[in-house]
Amino acid sequence: MKAGLRNMLMSMSSGGPSQPTPYTPPPAGQPQAAQPPAPQPPTGPGGYPQQAYQPPAPQASHPQQPAAQQAPNPYGAPQQQAYPQQQAYPQQPGYPQQKEYPQKPGYPQQQAYPQQPGQPQAAPQPGAQPPHAYPQQPAAPQTPPQPPYGAPQQQYSAQQYASSNYAPAHFTQQPGYASVLAQPTPYSPPAPIAPSPAQGLPALPVPRGKGKLVLYILFGFLGFLLLALIGYFTVFLGPLASVIGLVLALVPLAIVFFVVWMIDRWEPEPKLMVFFAVAWGAIAAIGLTLLLDLGLTLLVGTRSDTAGAVVQAPIVEELFKGLGVYLIFLIARRSFDGPVDGVVYGALVGAGFAFTENIQYFAISLIEGGGAQLTMTFVVRAILSPFAHAMFTSLTGLAIGLAARRHASAGAALGFAALGWLGAVFLHALWNGSATFGDFFLLYFLLQVPLFVGFIFGVIALRREEARLTKARLSDYAAAGWFTPEEVNMLATAAGRKVGLNWAAQLRGDRRPLMREFIKDATTLAMVRQRSITGRDPMAAQDEQALLVRTRATKAALLAY
Questions:
Q1: Are 465 and 471 within 8 A, CB to CB?
Q2: Could you tell me the EC number(s) of this protein (predicted)?
Q3: Which residue from 236, 204, 269, 243 is spatially nearest to 542, judged by alpha carbons?
Q4: pLDDT tens digit string along 368-398?
Q5: pLDDT band, very low/low/confident/very high, at 306 (cuts 50, 70, 90)
Q6: Strand partners, 24
Q7: 3-class SS string, 252-313
């Protein structure tokens, strides 16, 4: 080692490179004993051929070079020329000015680089060729109090999260979370809420259930019964009387439709299921009732009108109407969210049943008594009691809706339906009895009107409960940044929705259709979350993902210029 050092000093004192030594093949090699361990020995001073070295003149442009010449060097003063190419490392390739990056947290020490060549503590560097820029960075003495890069990151405050590019739009600090890291992960079913994605994502259709095959079979069955009913009315009542009865029957049907639409406006039911409910009542329920009545007539014979109206009709008619509501519960269970949905489906089935029954009654009145009897029948059935069948079957639907809210199985829901059916039979028998016994108008105002008023107040109470549930579930998403508190108040109140629609009408192009879509999807999202929390819908997470994307896309379209 001493001999090698002596040879090196003699070489440098002579002003030229030394002859190859036994320790290194390249000419003018450094003493191997002074080198730190390296995968391969350097080929020359600094690891590069001597002809590639830069003359001392360019070193004047680097202020740190004079300090390097004054530092003690174990290899001798001329040895500083062994690493002239490293003077370029403070100016990294592609980064001509390191001072352009002072704003990066955790990297203020990059401008100093206390371990660069020329410093006294740079002795261990000669063997490290590629990573010259950051050999000593992890142990830099001037590291600020902030943890270095790669260390566990400290939790950010809500204010820092709100200013981040990754924060959801309109994010506000939520008291329910200790920190932003406590926010749930994206699209996690059921209880965690996904953080808001970027705006402008395309709207996706809500996934459908696997009951379409059964529904198509039922529609085929309804088509067969419809043909049979058309033949029945044409043969037994005549085409003219049947057409007149059909036109008049549209009046009470429209009245019931309007009221049901008012009830169902908060969270509209799927149009296909609405159509099926009306079709079941108008075709299947009435057709099965006529078939059963024909069978009983053949088996038992003719029965009295009183027994048929007060006993047979309520039991049989409410049985087949209630069956339609129960089938909807089984087929469209993901759309059957609670009591309000049950009332809506029950009223639609009852309205369909009353429509076909009114065609029959109006046609018979026209045939038997002419215009006078037809007028009286129309006033009683279309004006005074258009909601009779709708109200009766709504009790069955209400019971099934309560079962749906309680996450009841199909068997348990059937038990609830039986209880609702008993109530429907009782009201139906009471109604028919008032027309058979005593003064109809007296019993109508003393009994039927109070029942109808009580039914209306019950529906209003159910609507308020549904609005409260909507606000509670949307508040869960607001806590994750999907909605603002103001948007939740707008979506969860009737007055707020009206204000939102008026605001959308003032936007360019009248964006009320977009606002209606936003309200509809947000309300459906609240119901999906309720099903997800109760665990009664295994597909709730898939619906939740699609609806979250749709609400975000609709909101972006509303706010677009």
A1: no
A2: 3.4.-.-
A3: 204
A4: 999 999 999 999 999 988 999 999 999 999 9
A5: confident
A6: 21
A7: HHHHHHHHHHHHHCCCCCCHHHHHHHHHHHHHHHHHHHHHHHHHHHHHHCCCCHHHHHHHHH
Average pLDDT value for residue range 314-333: 94
- Token reading at 379: 């006033």
What are the structure tokens assigned to 243, written together? 């057409």
Which pairs count as long-range contacts for 161-167, CB under 8 Å and 24+ apart, including other chains? 167/481
Q: Residue written as tokens 């403070």?
A: 90
Residue 284 has pLDDT above 60, yes or no: yes
CA 283 to chain centre: 37
pLDDT category of residue 145 using cuts at 50, 70 and 90: low
Rounded distance, CA 241 to CA 401, Å?
A: 39
> Please, which pLDDT band fits residue 448 given cuts at 50, 70 and 90?
confident
In the chain, the amino acid numbered 525 is: L
E strands present in 372-425: none
Average pLDDT value over all residues in the chain: 73
Contact 400, 416 (CB under 8 A): yes
Q: How far apart are the first and last CA of the chain?
A: 78
Contacts 24+ apart (CB under 8 A), 212-220: 214/331, 215/272, 215/276, 215/331, 218/276, 218/280, 218/327, 218/331, 219/276, 219/279
Average pLDDT (97-122) is 43
Over 50: is that where the pLDDT of 161 sits?
A: no
Distance CA 75, CA 114 (A): 20
Domain ranges of the chain: 212-437, 470-559
Higher pLDDT, 175 or 474: 474
Long-range contacts of 508-511 (CB under 8 A, 24+ apart): 508/561, 511/557, 511/558
Residues 6 or more apart whose Cβ sits within 8 Å of residue 112: 140, 142
**What residue has token string 């939790």?**
155
Query: Is the torsion defined by CA of 97, 100, 106, 108 positive or negative?
Result: positive
DSSP state of 221: H
Encoding tokens for residue 38? 């390296």
Q: Which residue carries 């076909």 as its tokens?
A: 356
pTM attached to this predicted model: 0.63
Cα–Cα distance measured from residue 330 to residue 414, given in angstroms and rounded to the nearest whole number: 10
Tally the C-alpha atoms within 13 A of residue 48's C-alpha that lie toward its C-beta.
13
Q: Give 199's contacts (C-beta < 8 A, 6+ positions apart).
A: 169, 552, 553, 555, 556
The amino acid sitting at 501 is L
Higher pLDDT, 183 or 210: 210
More reliable by pLDDT, 344 or 32: 344
Tokens of 245: 């009865």
pLDDT at 498 over 90: yes
